[in-house]
Amino acid sequence: MKFEVITIFPELIDDYKKISIVARAIKKRLLQIKAFNLRDYTFDAHKTVDGRPYGGGAGMVLKADVLTRAIQGVLKKTTKKKEKTKVILLTPAGKVFSQTEAKKLAKNDRLIFISGRYEGFDERVSSLVDAEYSIGDYVLMGGELAALVMIETIARFVSGVVGKEESIQGESFSKDGKTSNLLEYPQYTRPEVLKIGKKTLRVPKVLLSGDHQKIKIWRADQALKKTKKVRPDLINKQW
Ligand code: ADE
């Protein structure tokens, strides 16, 4: 799967590519991640990407003409085969991204993300994009981290990227495991007894019992309890 990011900070994306699972998946040709510098698509010697908003107001707005040139330029760089492509604008005013959205977006061959800085975009750029996404109800300095959050989440659905295929099943928010719509149950590994100061923390006995049926029931119960406590909004959520 191919991810492309249009940004004025391509180095943020390029650095991310060098790390761990993503770097390995790129090496195995399962993923491709490419950053494009928005300044390469400007029209003037100063490489201006933003302008003052019509009607006044604080901050600068990313220019629609430069963004259009960049999107069209990147779209034109297709490979031989016909790729199922979506152009995505990152904005706090977009649809909230989720695990369900990630799974749907993973059905594409190619996603082009547009990361903004400054106060926003000239509204006319919307006519060139297929979807607008926010990664949550807060405002970032720009869309680069949002693009990386989306890329990492979507990439995990690409076959072969995550070591064991089954390790993405039954995760928090997934609808496919027994813990559908729920947060993941607690996990433990060695040591069986952990001393922290005066505290002694033990692994729950049921996990040491070898009784798989009992473990399954315990995990489902823990997932439900945790979700009720931390995210009660998920219990009756329609996905
Ligand atoms: N740009 C600034 N804030 C953002 C957010 N929450 N999601 C996506 N893009 C953004």
Proportion of strand residues: 15-25%
Q: What is the CA-CA span between the terminal residues?
A: 25 Å
CATH superfamily of the largest domain: SPOUT methyltransferase, trefoil knot domain
Please give the CATH class of the largest domain: Alpha Beta
Number of strands: 10
The major β-sheet equals: 5 strands, parallel
| Secondary-structure element pattern, one letter each | EHHEEEHEHEEEHEEH
Number of domains as seen in the coordinates: 2
How much is the radius of gyration in Å? 22 Å
- Number of H- or I-type helical stretches: 6
Structural class: alpha/beta
Ligands in the model, by name, code or SMILES, are: adenine
Query: If strands are numbered along the chain, what order do they take across the biggest sheet?
Result: 2-1-6-5-8
What would the CATH topology of the largest domain be?
A: Alpha/beta knot
**Secondary structure: helix percent:** 25-40%
Write down the overall geometry.
elongated
Corresponding CATH architecture of the largest domain: 3-Layer(aba) Sandwich
SSE diagram, text form:
Elements: E1 2-7, H1 10-16, H2 20-27, E2 32-37, E3 50-51, E4 61-62, H3 64-76, E5 85-96, H4 99-105, E6 110-114, E7 120-121, E8 131-134, H5 144-155, E9 193-196, E10 199-202, H6 212-230
Parallel strand pairs: 1-2, 1-6, 4-7, 5-6, 5-8
Antiparallel strand pairs: 3-4, 9-10
